[in-house]
Design brief:
The structure holds 2 protein chains of 2 kinds. Chain A is mainly α. Chain A has a single domain, classed as Up-down Bundle (Formate dehydrogenase/DMSO reductase fold), CATH 1.20.1630. In chain A, the strands form 2 sheets. A two-stranded antiparallel ribbon of chain A has the order 1-2. A two-stranded antiparallel ribbon of chain A has the order 3-4. In chain A, helix 1 packs parallel to helix 13, helix 7 runs antiparallel to helix 12 and helix 8 packs across helix 9. By secondary structure, chain B is mainly alpha-helical. Chain B has one domain. Chain B contains 14 helices and 6 strands. A two-stranded antiparallel ribbon of chain B has the order 1-2. In chain B, helix 1 packs across helix 6 and helix 6 packs antiparallel against helix 12. Classes of the chains: A mainly alpha, B mainly alpha. At the A-B interface, helix 2, helix 3, helix 4, helix 5 and strand 2 of A face helix 2, helix 3, strand 2, helix 13 and helix 14 of B.
């Protein structure tokens, strides 16, 4: 098999990595926003925001890399998905505008910062919910004729996509709560553990719902998971997910700092792997595959050189950033 | 009434990009100025450079956040509103944007964290290095986005197969003919824009007798760079215009208000071009000067608008006017810088008088020129989205007019709230002015310093 096979496959993997990193990294800082209404205490909210303030901008850049990567490597998929999911993408962007500026505005607005608290919380929740709608809308399938989107403006709206939206909000909130458990000190740490327990239950319910719903709706997905020998090969995915959930729970019970967050990250990665298994090789289910929508090999190679050369560097200085701002954030303390 | 999705999509793009460009234009220059100040602090150990760096970093943080969020919107708009464009030229434009993300966005976003919150956590040298990387990141970002835009103005290094552009030569694509001058023009514009903001704020503080040392440093440093950059910008702009004549003659004919290519062109100082009459009304012009500037020949000829079919002409009135606004402000800015430096040389700069008062009002000049310039170049490219390849009306997504309208209204509402607040907050920071930083504490807008800063204000107001 030549370049025509491997290049799109490699690019699908690169975008998969970018999207997974986005979901985990921006997931916890969006989660912080979703958890804002859980406390009314101003200093706790300060503490929550400070725990992610140095990171959010870098985290969100992975979303641009995901979108940009799709544009570069699969322009035909980009040109179908964006018009098809027009309204949820719009909602996500506007929500990100509100919560992004809130990181700066909230401090300057003090003591009149209530509006920006609401913007941060509402924007974060709406961004998470719209990302769920986008995921659900994509899984639900997009109407395509001659390689172009030919459906209606509300095709993405379904009970399933709303379920995905709620699942995303709960999932990000769990990431946020376990992040707080690891990265703040004082009352908030214990509170976050309490939130995390409730959210873990909710996330498991949503994961089960999505895992049962998709094979029931789509025969191709049922076939992938529930025929032999696939059943045996793929059985580790749900089993490992349960083990991760167990790790989160026992970590929370034993007041461990890192294991609940790590377990949640594991659940997200496995969930993502599950979705990829269900849908591969489709990039635009149920009609366009990774290979149907691939851009010019020249462009994919040119961009891949940049990714191979620069991604390790980016990961290195991102890690340096996280190392610089390590340690727990205490009440009444920012980064100075 | 039937709404035209093309018009709505264009309005949306114009609206979102005009809001966006204001922030990069400011933050490219501001990050360089902050890095300079932090470097000077390290070098001279002079605390007032440190005050200035801390103060402008706060303003940078707010502006940068607005630039980031309004920029993400644009990346996605290529797909949501202009999917035919994305599919047709994605192979060429896509990697340019991709490289922008890889080489600039991650760099800026990561080291911004260290610049804003890292003082006291990292050694001073590393803090300075972070500031330099942020400044370099903003300029690299401009490099790629200007390359992509210039490619749309004058495409090169590709071939068309089955209606899709395929790259043949990446160097020719990246360094396409109009790119180097356009990049220089935009970077200088960004530094000039920031320079005039710093100049105006310095003049404001000086006249109010607040932060006088810092104010004098601001005025002097701003004038020093502006007196070099504003004349240089006029020169670069002139060369850029000659390039445009080569690759986009219809655009140049439009912005010169030049209709008849058989006659030597006058330099039209003012007129109202009338597209239906194919002539200028109320024209005030200097004969032959247009030919002399663009062809360097008194009787030189270049194509007029009538040389192009009406459907291939840009909308002449808006670009004719926006071009004059840009050029007019450009000369005004050069005049201000020169006057200021002459006054400085004669030891008469720091005097209360009309000039210092006038300087407090000059902060918007750069922004206005940047917006007028982008209107000129983008509308001047019409009716094409990619010159000669794809017309704007054919580039649009298969989405309904009502979706376009909904999104346009939402963008207007959200931007109105967010950017009005942003400007209000920046103004609030400016009113407060540079504070003497208390060594242990970094940014004053973080919780703990908030308290000590309130104390400082109380002390200051008691003085």
């Amino acid at each position: 098999m030549g370049m025509e096979f491997w290049l799109p496959a490699i690019w699908a993997a690169v975008i998969g990595v970018a999207v997974s990193l986005y979901v985990i990294l921006d997931g916890f800082d969006l989660g912080i926003g979703i958890l804002f209404p859980f406390t009314k205490d101003e200093s706790e909210r300060d503490q929550m925001m400070n725990s992610v303030a140095p990171f959010w901008d870098g985290n969100e850049t992975w979303l641009i890399l995901g979108g940009g990567g799709l544009f570069v490597a699969f322009p035909a998929a980009y040109a179908v998905i964006m018009p098809a999911l027009y309204l949820p993408v719009l909602l996500m962007l506007l929500a990100l505008v509100f919560r992004g500026v809130a990181f700066e505005f909230r401090w300057i607005a003090k003591p009149d910062h209530r509006f920006w608290d609401a913007a941060f919380a509402g924007g974060s929740a709406l961004a998470a919910f719209s990302q769920g709608l986008i995921l659900g809308g994509l899984l639900d399938g997009i109407t395509v004729t001659d390689g172009r989107f030919s459906g209606g403006p509300l095709d993405w709206l379904s009970p399933f996509s709303i379920l995905c939206g709620c699942a995303m909000v709960a999932g990000y909130a769990l990431l946020g709560a376990t992040w707080l458990n690891m990265r703040v000190a004082g009352h908030l740490e214990a509170k976050a553990r309490g939130w995390a327990k409730g959210l873990l239950v909710a996330v498991l319910v949503f994961m089960v719902a999505v895992s049962l719903w998709t094979p029931l709706l789509y025969e191709r997905i049922a076939e992938r998971w529930f025929t032999l020998p696939n059943l045996f090969y793929l059985a580790p995915v749900p089993i490992l997910t349960l083990l991760c959930a167990l790790m989160v729970w026992t970590g929370l019970e034993k007041d461990q700092p890192a294991s609940p967050f790590v377990g949640t990250v594991g659940m997200f990665l496995l969930g993502f792997a599950g979705l990829a298994i269900s849908n591969f090789p489709y990039l635009v289910p149920p009609s366009l595959t990774v290979w149907d929508t691939a851009g010019a090999p020249e462009s994919q190679v040119f961009m891949l050189i940049g990714v191979v050369a620069l991604l390790p560097l980016i990961l290195a200085y991102t890690a340096f950033m996280y190392w610089t701002f390590r340690g727990r954030v205490r009440a009444g303390e920012g980064y100075h | 009434m039937d709404l035209d999705p093309v018009i709505l999509a264009r309005m949306q793009f114009a609206f979102t990009i005009v809001f966006h460009i204001v922030f990069p234009a400011f933050t490219i220059g501001l990050s360089a100025w902050i890095a300079t100040l932090i470097g000077l602090t390290l070098w001279t150990k002079n605390p007032h450079y440190e005050n200035l760096a801390a103060f402008w970093t706060k303003i940078f943080a707010v502006s940068f956040a607005m630039g980031v969020v309004s920029g993400i919107v644009l990346t996605y708009q290529f797909g949501t509103n202009w999917s035919v464009f994305s599919r047709m030229v994605g192979n060429v434009i896509g990697p340019l944007i991709g490289y922008e993300v890889l080489t600039a966005f991650f760099l800026e976003a990561s080291f911004l964290g260290i610049l804003l919150f890292g003082r006291g956590r990292v050694p001073p040298g590393l803090h300075f290095f972070a500031a330099v990387l942020v400044a370099v990141g903003t300029a690299i970002s401009a490099f790629w986005i200007l390359s992509a835009n210039s490619w749309m103005q004058a495409p090169a290094g590709f071939e068309m197969r089955d209606g899709v552009a395929y790259p043949t030569d990446w160097l020719a694509i990246i360094f396409n003919p109009t790119f180097p001058l356009r990049l220089a023009h935009m970077l200088i514009a960004a530094y000039v824009t920031t320079g005039f903001v710093v100049l105006a704020i310095g003049a404001r503080y000086w006249l109010q007798g607040k932060h006088v040392r810092e104010a004098e440093t601001m005025v002097k440093m701003a004038l020093g760079i502006l007196v070099v950059l504003t004349p240089l910008q006029i020169l670069v702009g002139d060369f850029h215009g000659l390039k445009a004549l080569e690759y986009q003659p219809a655009k140049v004919a439009g912005l010169e208000g030049h209709w008849d290519g058989a006659e030597p062109a006058p330099l039209v100082l003012f007129a109202l071009p009338d597209a239906s009459a194919e002539a200028n009304r109320f024209e005030l012009a200097i004969p032959h000067l247009g030919s002399l500037i663009l062809t360097h020949d008194w009787n030189g000829l270049y194509d007029g608008l009538k040389s192009f079919a009406p459907e291939d002409r840009p909308p002449v009135l808006p670009i004719f006017l926006s071009f004059r606004i840009m050029v007019g402000i450009g000369f005004l800015m050069a005049g201000i810088a020169l006057w200021g430096v002459l006054a400085w040389a004669r030891g008469r700069l720091f005097e209360t008088g009309w000039f210092m008062s006038f300087l407090t009002y000059v902060w918007p000049l750069g922004f206005l020129a940047v917006i007028a310039g982008w209107v000129t170049t983008e509308m001047g490219r019409q009716p094409w989205v990619v010159t000669g390849l794809l017309r704007t009306e054919d580039a649009i997504s298969p989405v309904t007019a009502s979706e376009m309208l909904t999104s346009l209204i939402l963008f207007v509402l959200v931007y109105a709230v967010v950017f009005a607040s942003g400007l209000y907050f920046i103004n609030r920071l400016l009113l407060k002015g540079p504070m003497r930083p208390i060594r242990e504490h970094g940014l004053a807008n973080r919780p703990i310093t908030g308290a000590s800063e309130t104390g400082r204000i109380a002390i200051a107001s008691g003085e």
